[in-house]
Amino acid sequence: MQNKLSFFLLFSFFVTACNTQPAFQPTFAACGRLSDFPAVAEAGYDCMEGTVADILVPSQNDSAFLVILERMKTLNAKFISCMQFVPGALKITGPEPRHDEIIIWAETTFRRARMAGIPYIVLGSGSARDIPDGFDKQAATQQFVNLCRQLAPLAQKYDVTVVIEPLSKPYSNFINSLAEGAAIVTTVNHPNIRLLCDIGHMMLEDEPADEIVKFGNLIHHCHITEKENRNVPGTSGDDFRPYLKALQQIQYKGCISIESRWTDLSQQLAPALQYIKQQI
């Protein structure tokens, strides 16, 4: 009898294990400034996301960056990524693209990212990539692809991955869906050029969560925010569950970074994180 009971318990455990999905345990970041890190860490986040201009300061000399790097070490601050990569003045598309200047900017950015232990650089940069009125979209797409092909070996050199961020139409007129971003990533075909999914932008474009499953093999980073005014999660009660379920389905093990317009960061950090975890 005891042997039968032991066998039954073992069999039940085996069946349960086989039918249980792997635990969905992403890491979490909040977008902000270096000075926000103590509050972000206290609220329970794993890391932060900053901007290229604030953290890596490619417009300034190395001595200025080393001051920031020392401050990061003092705070024991961990950054998963930096966004707002290419300044609006350095046009990626159009009749007068400035790719040579962007590559110089990128070399400094990537080199310092490695020094700071930052693995991802977000290529959103709506103003820089916007297609000028009357300019051919196919030509603009080829310009973007050509730039990414130049960025790829440079990113590889410094152990950095560039993640292309599709933006909703209020923020850019180019690369507005995961499908468009994935097409560019696939064309470039380099492991250091990957895809970012921004759940807020997807919701604003009425882009279904299934697109995350469709292009899951290319997604290496994720932003989340409410669709209205980039509000902090929990403000209006947006339902992120279909998108979070899609991330679980692709066994996403990366970071979910809250990229919102904080109105009172110290008071909003913990509730926002709790809201997302409850939906997971």
Which structural category fits the helices and strands?
alpha/beta
The number of strands is 8
Which regions are unreliable across 5 or more consecutive residues at pLDDT < 50?
Answer: 5-19
Radius of gyration: 21 Å
Polypeptide structure, described:
This protein has a single domain (23-279), classed as Divalent-metal-dependent TIM barrel enzymes (TIM Barrel), CATH 3.20.20. The chain is 47% helix and 14% strand. The chain has twelve helices and eight strands. Helix 11 (241-249) links the parallel strand 7 (219-224) and strand 8 (255-258). Helix 7 crosses helix 8 (178-188). The termini are far apart. The model is unreliable at 5-19 (pLDDT under 50).
Keywords:
280 residues, TIM Barrel, 8-stranded parallel β-barrel, globular
Question: Helices, strands, pairings?
Answer:
Layout: H1 2-18, E1 27-31, H2 37-42, E2 47-51, H3 52-56, H4 62-75, E3 79-83, H5 99-116, E4 120-123, H6 126-129, H7 137-157, E5 161-164, H8 178-188, E6 193-198, H9 199-204, H10 210-214, E7 219-224, H11 241-249, E8 255-258, H12 265-279
Quick overview:
The chain has 12 helices and 8 strands.
